[in-house]
Amino acid sequence: MSMPSFVGRRVIVVGCLVAATAAFAQGPRGPQGPQGPGQPPRAPVGVPGPGANPAPVAPPAANPNQGRPGPQLNPLGQPLAGLTAAQLAAFNEGGVEFRKVETVAGGLGPIFNDVSCVACHSAGGVGGASRTTVTRFGRTVDGVFDALESQGGSLLQVRSINRGLREVVPTEANTVARRVTTPLFGAGLIEAIPDSTITLGTLRAKPAGIAGKVSVVRDVVSGVNRIGRFGWKAQQATLLAFSGDAYVNEMGITNRFFPTENAPNGNVELLARFDRVADVEDEIDPVDGKADMDRAADFMRLLAPPPRGPATASSVAGEAIFARLDCAVCHTPTMRTGRHPIAALSGKEVGLYSDLLLHDMGALGDGIVQGTAGAREMRTAPLWGLRSRPTWLHDGRANTVDQAVRGHGGEAQSSRDRYAALSAAERQQLLDFLNTL
Ligand code: HEC
Ligand code: HEC
Description:
three-stranded antiparallel beta sheet, binds heme C
């Protein structure tokens, strides 16, 4: 984490947008649980070769989320309303980084999953979800999960800069899970929810059978324990931490938080033979004090949330059913951000439809133990922007929202059963409601 000394004053500028993260959310610090370095996301399987990125889209002029009548051409992937000129510039510069195709000379690989953030995060706009999945593996014996870290687990990298390097799922692995790419719209609002607000959700009275626990993670940015909220297992607390994690684990670009390359299936000799670019690869630009991961985090932080669709008589009826079936116990309609140096993120209502807690989902759990999250535990998926998703549930198994609800188990079993028992008309009302989120 060597910051060149010439960075000086500019770093303070970064502080406003990026390190802001650490400043606001000061909830109770969770217990100091043993917490391996979070191993968040990784990449997909069957990705087309490098260069499959959508063409860059022109950054919007300003505030395009407001007052757009009728069908919206590109309502997602826009900046938050009410940004200052400097914040808008940071959003646009971050968007360039998010779309940038990384090269081998620039540090890509030796093993990686794709060549840019947008290669996976693209549905509905830059920053969206996609069908692209990444693979995690491990070995479970008598209910004890081993991430097989010495063999490159738990995240698989499916591509490499040279043929001899490709990772495979080791034969010892008996637990293999896929995770689909999640959307990032509104991520800055989720980041700005204080830890204490999420923790409060564990204390609320709940119907029998529903619990929920916080994910406690060591945040690499601040170095303190925080409440995780990003990723299918709520495995990261801040966007900058997730950004650094994605750079190293999805693209093989080492950075000041994650300075070590992944060795192919743990083979350090093989890594040494092919790793030609000196670490840390994501260097801080002396001009503005930011590395690429800082810019990508700026972009995600300033992305507007998905706009709500218009309510209809049917969707209003469906909202009541959503509450009656206890969907809203886990899919909490709103939370509020704390004080934040960026006015557009400060004291805002966040209509995310999630408590950001981990729930035991029974057989729907993905079998991977990650941080505080047990094998069957998953983060309540935020439901905003549901209609722009190409596929649903953590592994993308659901091709419709109806299938996603029917796939619930564990703590959500009773909700799911009552959903299945609805009349066709009521079920349609509920789906119409979900379609407005
Ligand atoms: C190979 C595909 C792929 C690439 C490339 C990729 N991501 Fe992701 N991203 C994913 C997947 C899959 C997940 C869900 C992972 C999980 O939860 O285990 C994810 C989740 C995230 C999340 C968590 C969002 C939430 O729902 O809480 C963030 C933030 C994120 N990615 C940022 C980035 C950034 C920044 C980059 C570029 C540096 C990037 N990603 C590159 C596939 C990708
Ligand atoms: C016990 C908490 C809980 C309850 C109750 C619950 N859910 Fe969920 N829901 C979750 C979790 C956790 C996930 C993520 C599942 C996964 O990881 O695959 C999820 C995922 C979803 C998804 C898919 C979202 C996505 O991004 O793929 C939909 C749609 C959904 N829930 C709707 C509902 C509806 C409708 C109800 C009521 C009938 C409901 N849920 C009740 C916890 C709950």
